[in-house]
Amino acid sequence: MEKQNLRIRLLTSWGRWSIVHWKEALLIVLGITLIMIYGASRVQSQMTYYSILPSKEKNVQDLKEIIKNFPMASGIIAVIDGRKIKNPAEAEKQVKATIDALERELNKASYKKYIIRTSGKTDISLFKEHGLMLTKSEDIKRFAEMFKSLNFSALLHNINNDFEKEYSGNEEKLSLDENFAVSQFKGLDNLVHLMEKAASGKKVSNAEVNKVLGGYLYGDSYLLSNDNRMGLLIIEPNFTIDTIGKMTKGVSFIEKGVKSVAAAHGLKAGLTGLTVVGRDEMETSQQGLAVSSTIALLLILALMIFAFRMFSAPLISGTPLVVGIIWTIGLTGFTIQRLNIVTAMYMVALLGLGIDYAIHLLTAFVQERDGGVPFKDAVLNSLGKSGNGIIIGALTTAAAFFMLSFSKTEMISELGIVAGLGIISELVVMIMMIPPLLSWRNSRVERKGKGEHKLFARININSHAASGLGNMLVKKPYAVMLVMILVITGFSFFAGKISIEQNIMNMEKKGLESIKLQDEMVKEFGMAPDVMSIISSNLDEIKSLSTKLKKLSSVKRVESIVPYVTIGDEVKVRTPEIKEFKMNIENTRSENSGIDNRKLLYELNRLEDNFLELSDLAYLGNMDKIAGILSHATGRNSDGVKVGTTAFDSLGGMLEKGPVDERNLEHLQNMVRDNLAAKLTEMTSLQPVTLDMVPAVMRDSFVSSDGSKFLLNIVPTKNPWKGDFRKIYESQIKSVTDKATGMVLAGDVLTIMAREDGVRSSLGAVLVIFIIILIDFRNVKLAFLTMIPLAASFLVLFGIMGIFNIKFDFVNIIAVPLLIGIGIDDAVHINHRYLLEGKGSMARVIGKTGTALLLTSLTTIIGFASFIPSPMRAMKSTGIVLSLAMAIAFINSVLLHPAVLIVAAEKLKLNINPWRKGDKKHV
Amino acid sequence: MKRIFLLTALLVAASASYVCAETARDIVDKADEAFKINRVYSISSLTVYKSGKAQPAQVIEGYTMERNGKSYSLTIYKAPRRMKGTAMLMIDNDLWVRFASTGRVRKLSSSAKKNSAGGSDFSYADMGENGQGLAEKYTPSLRGEEKIDGVSCFKVELTAVSPGAPYEKLMVFVSKDDYRYIRIDYYENNATIKTMKLSDYRVKDGINYPFKVVMESHVKDSRTVILTKQFERNSSKIKDRYFTTGYLQSIR
To answer: Do A554 and B193 count as a contact with CB atoms less than 8 A apart?
Structure first.
């Protein structure tokens, strides 16, 4: 009683002083607002999903360490698309030219502020010199066997033996070595072409020989798609997803450059990668927030004009509303110093929540003025009558939100803090600003000589519809209750069908280029956009895990620094083998240079047979790139029917029937032998390969900046964001190690934690609300009855979500605590009025409060529904779920709750009076 | 008293698990009846769907038999045109392929049995299970009952015991009313890597045989459908001489 009196005394004292000294009152608010603006300047906008990952989780910590310490983890991938060029050879040529042009462009000084380096081709310098030292023992022996003679027929004989041993009849093996196999087939086909050229008497240059053998030994250095009509350029930026400001500007700057260079070459290009997705999340969420805040503010202010028929209503309610938002951002700046995607969304929702206090105060004020009460008394009465209700309402909502701050998940705890601060700020600002603003308006009205009642004469805030509803509730409380229970029960049957969104990509904007390109990379390059990774300071551990992980059926390949350096006893084991290999190569230089046409023809036919068999296997295994190259080399169409003449045919024909320019062919054989011997000898360095010798792009990909840790990437066979594959991928990796992390896993952790933590904190919030209601109404039965519409609202909401397959995700899950915090308000207001008006007064209670409740609920729904037009699907879904939740809560509060109250207090004669006599009337 | 109660409880639990193990074995043995068949001739079509897109259908002529504890299987491609005449011979763990495009015969390593057969979602081992049944190399345990595609099924877990078992675990769903395999989940490293669904059961030559088998990979975007067009048990078309590399070489 004393507390209530004190509360009302404080309110009316402020009201009395601020009406008279409205300028000073507004100056005080301005002073505080300036301090809050300073606070707001400390706030960082971090609207990426990455920024809300739960940082206390081990795998999230590992992921953050990877982003921080492994520069290429923030790598940007430029995808160059030449698919619109029909001729495959022309498309490949144009894609390669574009990659070269892009490298030149991005290495210009203007890009240095964002780019460390670019990589459009595989750096083969290390392999050229240390190739054999980086090759497994069994493969060194294999190569030694293959290259023990470099004369054409002997070389082809050994290569054929190798093919038959390694690949024939085994498409699985072929698939594992696809890229290496492709370069081998292409190189051999090109070599046959050179032989055919030489045999027919045409001159073959050293440069041609060098190019063909380089391609055969080292492969194509460009990063091309399976059909060679797309290419990749890797860009190493000097920012990460954590340096949001630089990331947003940097990605957009690079994107502009990449697109314009590609367009100049008649091709399309786009960017993808974690940082690009992060930039897109920032941009789409900011666009969404700009759209939704504008819509929300305009609709709310229009509603205020319509409801109060006062053109100054937007100013009187809108100014404190905006000031309240500034205070909230300012207080956020003094506390947690950042706005994440969820708290930023809450700022928009706060427009719909904060305005409620203005509605309650202005409604009470207008009702007083309608009753002919003078201005000053009307303001003071409105503060006295509705102030108590809105303070309790705000306190319950804020308490519910603050309970969330104990959550372990930052996203939820930050929401709790910001939401609680927001409610308190709006309440305080409304109470501080509305009386002086009304006073300012009144002085203007008086100065213009308008009568005091003129504006309000025709206003009747009591709605006939609301009174009608109240009468119906009084007449048929049982019927209303029964219908509501039936509807609620009906919906509750579908509540179990509710599901959780597992794919973060389904929460992004639809049609986002960076996401589409991830799918393209899976389809065209066989590369997955998101991988799981392991960090370790032990190279042996990385090596051992690589071996185990490679065997998993959900793993396409593993990537680490292991193939690029020598570890353990590798140097010791490989050195004698490399020495022997080198000696063999030396011996080939003294080989007889004669050519046995018959033997060469036999080996050529054998090679063609191997190509045909491999082509069949590739066809069966759907390895289009290999099947295409081999079909072309053997002159077959997709049905395996011979449709063209090949180098095999013409060279075979010459060797069989003549004429052959034997001298020229022998000369080519010498050139090939010398060039191949030189290349192979160059690869026989015996020096151990250490980290500092590894090309920078590789090092930055797999070695931490300080060189102390190593990264192992586990590339999946499918896009891990699609379907249930992620569970298989994660589960298989867990059977080998529990050290893996990645955006996929971190996203799952966030979903699980948001769900579990959200539910836990929400239960806490329910408890706190119950206690506050209990203290306020001092009646256990009434406190329980007040919770009924809230519980019913959850059942209906979950039921509707189940029916329409609206999934919960880690963003829209905030509907649960928000519904608890906000959904109870209407029932609390009805309780207050019912206790004030007394038994049998429900028609009047609904008549008097119904319109205000409808208005406040409408503004809240507008606040949330303003997210629906957002391009970001997570925001859209949050808008749908929250506006649904608020609409359901309103219906339950004005239909179910009054019916329950009438039945309980008037029919069943339950005592809902306070246990200690207070300032409330007894029912 | 307490001790007697404990002993009784243990005894009951032990006999219950024994009964369950027996029941599980009975169930899979009955389901295996359809696959423990000898001298089978069949013609089937095999279609692989990659990313939902059907690849050219493969029409396959199959010959299988069991002799002296060894399983023999010969598969000859009839279509597509490119593969016509290509054939595979499997004798226990040995595998040979004859390529129609070159007429050459190649022997594959024994590990190839685990590889994908003809680019499909079946391994060579999956294709050659006939004659032995599924459960032979596994220990069955009853894991309850479940409805699969509207059919009430026993859910039986098969855990690998023999080192020759191609998978660490299988979860098989056997219809309760007529002991047909309805679905089989294949496990590798704690995860279901593929699922086989068997349907269109028809009684042919005294056995209830699935004329439609669908294998869906969960680690690749791929699904394989095998439709049996012709099926003969104890077929006179099966000749012992077919299961030799010499015959393989002669196939045209």
So the answer is: yes
**From the CA of B101, how many Å to the nearest CA of chain A?**
7
pLDDT in tens, B19-62: 444 589 899 988 988 888 889 999 999 999 988 889 889 999 99
3-state secondary structure of B180: coil
Q: Residue A770 and residue A699: Cα distance in Å, rounded?
A: 58
Same domain? A761 vs A859? yes
Closest-approach residue (CA) in chain B for A169: B108
Query: DSSP E strands: which ranges in B168-232?
Result: 169-175, 181-188, 191-204, 207-217, 222-232
| Tokens 């080192």 sit on residue | B163
Residue A691 gets which letter from DSSP? G
Rounded to whole angstroms, the Cα distance separating A323 from A311 reads 19
Neighbours of A632 (CB within 10 A): 18
Q: What is the CATH number of the domain that holds A248?
A: 3.30.70
Q: Which of residues 591-620 of A touch B (CB under 8 A)?
A: 609, 612-613, 615-616, 619-620
Mutation site for B-interface testing, chosen from A620, A715, A726 by largest number of B Cβ within 10 Å: A620
Which run of H or E residues covers position A894?
none
User: What is the total residue count of chain B?
Assistant: 252
**Do B190 and A734 count as a contact with CB atoms less than 8 A apart?**
yes
Residue B47, domain extent: 40-250
By percentage, how much of chain A surpasses pLDDT 70?
A: 95
Q: pLDDT, tens digit, for every residue of A35-58?
A: 999 999 999 888 888 888 888 888
Residue A309 pLDDT > 50: yes
Q: Which two tokens stand for residue A480?
A: 């209303």
For the four alpha carbons of A544, A548, A551 and A553, in that order, the dihedral sign comes to negative
**In the Cβ-directed half-sphere of A797, how many Cα atoms lie within 13 Å?**
30
For residue B101, give the nearest of A612, A622, A728 by CB distance: A612
Q: Is A25 helix (H, G, I), strand (E, B) or coil?
A: helix
Question: Could you tell me if residue B29 is inside a domain?
Answer: no
Residue A47 contacts residue A338 (beta carbons within 8 Å)? no
Gap between the Cα atoms of A166 and A74, Å rounded: 38
Nearest residue of A to residue B106 by CA position?
A: A169
Residue type, A585: I
Shortest alpha-carbon distance between residue B136 and chain A (Å): 24
| pLDDT attached to residue A120 | 87
Kindly state whether residues A581 and A669 are assigned to the same domain.
Answer: yes
Label residue B163 exposed, middle or buried (CB < 10 Å: 0-12, 13-18, 19+): exposed
Please answer whether residues A557 and A713 qualify as being in contact, where contact means their C-beta atoms are separated by less than 8 angstroms: no
* Alpha-carbon torsion, ordered A296, A297, A300, A304, to 10 deg: -170
**ω into residue A659 within 30 of 0, thus cis?**
yes
d(CA B103, CA B99): 5
The beta-carbon neighbor of B219 closest among A164, A553, A620 is: A553
Spatial distance between the Cα atoms of A497 and B234, rounded to a whole number of angstroms: 50
Task: Provide the number of structural domains found in chain B.
Answer: 1
This prediction has a pTM of 0.80
3-state secondary structure of B188: strand
**What's the average model confidence in pLDDT over A909-914?**
84
Helix axes A410-447, A375-404, angle to 10 degrees: 170
CATH code at position B131 = 2.50.20.10
Greater pLDDT, A464 or A167: A464
Q: Which residues of B touch A612 (CB under 8 A)?
A: 99, 101-102
Question: Does residue A153 form part of some domain?
Answer: yes
Chain B residue closest in CA terms to A609 = B102
Do A736 and B189 lie within an 8 Å CB cutoff?
A: yes
Cis, peptide link before residue B80, omega less than 30° from 0? yes
In a domain, B61, yes or no: yes
Residues in A touching B50 (Cβ below 8 Å): 622
